[in-house]
Amino acid sequence: MVILPGGAGRAAARGDAMVVVDAHGIVRGWSEGARLLTGYAAAEIAGRPVSALVDGDAAAAWQILRTSHGAIVAVRNWDGRRSELALRVCPLQGEHGEQRGYVITGAPDERGRMLGELAFTQSSTPMSVFDTEQRYLRVNDTACRIIGVREAEVRHRFFPDTVENAELSRGFLHHLRKVVETGRPVHYESWTRSPSGSRTRAWTIEMWPLREPAGELLGVGLAAFDSTEEYGTRQRLALLNRAATCIGTKLDVIHTARELAELTVPKLADFASVDLLDSVLRGDEPAVGPVDAEVELRRVAHHSGTPGVPEAAIDLGAADVYPSYSPPARALASGRAVLAGTGDPGVDTWLAEHGSRSTKLHQAAHRAFSLMAVPLVARGTTLGVAVFARLLSAENPDPFDRDDATLAQELAGRAAVCVDNARRYTKERTTALALQRSLLPQAMAGQAAVEFASRYLPALSRAGVGGDWFDVIPLSGTRVALVVGDVVGHGLHASVTMGRLRTAVWTLADVDLPPDELLTHLDDLVGHLAADDGATGGEIGATCLYAVYDPVSRRCTVAAAGHPPPVALFPDGTVRAVEVSAGPMLGVGGLPFESTELDLPEGTVLALFTDGLVEARDLDADAGTSALGEALATPAGDLEDVCDNVLKAMLPQRPADDVALLLARTRALDAEQVARWDLPADPAVVAEARQHATEQLARWGLDDIASVTELVVSELVTNAIRYGGAPIQLRLIRDRALICEVSDASSTSPHLRRARTYDEGGRGLLLVAQLTDRWGTRTTCAGKTIWAEQTLPVP
Question: In terms of Cα–Cα distance, which of 760, 671, 651, 777 is closest to 720?
């Protein structure tokens, strides 16, 4: 009786090839499966040695089969073809256990099954099989090596019993169960450190259901792929992409440094700091090239994953000297990133010699750290250094590597360019602002005609400082000119253009031109300036409002060149915009300007402003003007308070355009302060004019200057009679000075000249100029007026 092994019985049952040989290797049995596999019929092969079927060394093949119970053997088929079959051999035992022969089995897919088994066990990819209760069934060699156990130690064990109770393990178990519950594959990524590894790695994990042919779920297959490089690349690209939008959002050096520190924590480091050279913070030009030896840097930003930034040993705004062997100094000297950490001699010495850093290290829960110092270099100029620290622990043991350094250098390079742009902007803006403030009125003397207050606010936008300006210009006869203007554009060019126009307005005002004529001359000047600047691609455009107020007549004459009209707050509380012909912008040329005259009661507040005030809150011109009127009418103590009320009501926290505001409250001279006489064009009235002046000075109590005034009146009236003609008027005004005016019908302005020895005339005006503080002439609609001022005697 021969006992058929169980494996051979199963092979026979499913129709696989089976050969029975005796102890001498002679074929004694040949199954139908063997015929189908080789083509030999049972009658053809029975009684022959099985070795006759082997294509090659039959003895060697038989030895391998007997010792390993399975091998790949080359077989010669009936038609002469050669095929390699995966064979298994099982011994045949007699009734009493004696060796009677062998059963050799093989199946058409046995080779495939064997190769599949080899692929699973020998795969370089970690692979596992779990049953539906999340128990291990199979673990290949790579997975065993990664998790640090043998397959036998975990087989048939529940997964949670083989790992720590951590969030990562719970997530793994959740996905295993999800496959069983849904019957669908899952795909997810995990960032973890394996028990047998020292570095944290990224794994892409695939889980899929395993089913029998009938469809019943038997278990879950798993394969894990090491995607650390891909994960790191994606993380670095994501961080660089964020840097493009998160660094340099403002042209501010400190804000940009803060953005770099906040971006890198915790994605790259646990702590980041940025230290800059003082010259960068001042907006000066730093030294070109690396910084050698010891260097003093100022802390401008730091950030930590822990609230309160406990790692910081230097306060914000404080300066510290970095010795040459410290990582920051080494980075600055070499111009490259420096990787260091605890255990590095230079780092340990640096920390030991710096009391604050040594104390912070001893207080830290994790005293081991990895350090990376990266220089901030832009356009070949060293600006400072960024330092990144990573706390090392059993859970996070990975120090910075060269990939981290490459990423940090890219981020620092982008930040450095933004810092340098902010430094350059700060320098230009500071220069433009200083220039503009130097061109604006620094201290304006009090006026008899108006009480005034002003504000100038430069824009806080990236466009830079604009070309807004204002002025209060004293004119003859106690009159005053109120000016406000706006040069199109921003930056140094606008500030310089503003200064040129302001100087021109002063020059034209000194000639005492009417507002419309003054703007005409100013328009011509802007046209010439634009032509001169045209060769360099520059363009000039500007608006201006020029108003002249006379406290004697209480009339105001206004002309505008493309500028918003002034707003008047009258003593009765009513507010209205002055109706002024807008006129063309300066520089257009060829178009006329028109003057508007209006009476202003004493105490009227006139508001002159640039468009940045009424357009700051995205209002249209009419709505902005209405809001300005409401702000002007708000009760306030004085004009300074009114200015504050207007700015508070009209401006946002960050105005996008420059704002100039000039408020003037009108005054009026009493009738007792002005005396006038109409005179005929007769030389005989000169003595009468002197008499009028002397008597009026006596009534005013100014007898001390009567003799000088008599002489001035005599000379001016004589000139008017001789060269001007009727109507002639003498007017004396007593205010902060004594003003003597003589008007005539001639439009020809006199001028000083040096008379020769025998000349009969030419000495009058020279004498007037010597005896008075100021003198001048202005044209009027009826002719001209010559005036002279004298200082009043001190009581």
Answer: 777
- The DSSP letter of residue 323 is P
How far the first Cα of the chain sits from its last, in Å, is 154
pLDDT at 316: 93
Please confirm whether the linkage preceding 727 is cis (ω < 30° from 0): yes
C-alpha distances in angstroms, 671 versus 82, 618, 668, 688?
136, 47, 9, 22
What span, in angstroms and rounded, lies between the C-alpha atoms of 233 and 760? 99
pLDDT digits (tens, 9 = 90+) for 267-306: 999 999 999 999 888 888 776 666 766 788 999 999 998 8
**Considering only 43-47, 52-56, 650-654, which range has the smallest mean pLDDT?**
650-654
List, as one string, the DSSP characters of 56-116: S-HHHHHHHHHHHSEEEEEEE-TTS-EEEEEEEEEEEE-TTS-EEEEEEEE-TTHHHHHHH
Sign of torsion, CA 15 21 27 28? negative
CB 280 within 8 A of CB 423: yes
For residue 591, count other CB atoms closer than 10 A to its CB.
11
Position 757 scores a pLDDT of 45
| Residue 107: per-residue pLDDT | 65
Which helix H or strand E contains 292, and what residues bound it? none
Neighbours of 207 (CB within 10 A): 22
Please, are residues 294 and 322 in contact by the beta-carbon 8 Å criterion? yes
Closest by CA to 267, choosing from 290, 246, 294, 292, is 246
pLDDT at 115: 73
223-243 residue pLDDT tens: 999 888 888 888 888 999 999
* Residue 777: Cβ-neighbour burial (10 angstroms; 0-12, 13-18, 19+): middle
Least confident of 326-340, 463-477, 555-569, 703-717: 463-477
**Rg of the chain over all Cα atoms, to the nearest angstrom:** 50
pLDDT by residue (tens digit) across 3-38? Answer: 444 444 454 444 578 899 998 889 999 988 888 888
CA distances from 698 to 206, 459, 751 (A): 112, 55, 31
**Helix/strand/coil (H, E, C) string of 210-277?**
EECCCCCEEEEEEEEEECHHHHHHHHHHHHHHHHHHHCCCCCCHHHHHHHHHHHHCCCCCCEEEEEEC
Residue 751 near residue 719, CB atoms below 8 Å: no
pLDDT at 571 over 90: yes
pLDDT tens digit sequence for 583-631: 899 988 778 999 999 999 999 999 999 988 887 666 676 788 888 888 9
Tokens representing 435 are 């220039």
Token pair 């002679």 is found at: 26
pTM of structure = 0.58
What are 665's strand-pairing partners? 451, 605
SS3 341: strand
Longest dimension (CA), the chain: 173
Residue 579 near residue 597 (C-beta atoms within 8 A) = no
Distance, CA of 365 to CA of 658 (rounded, Å): 52
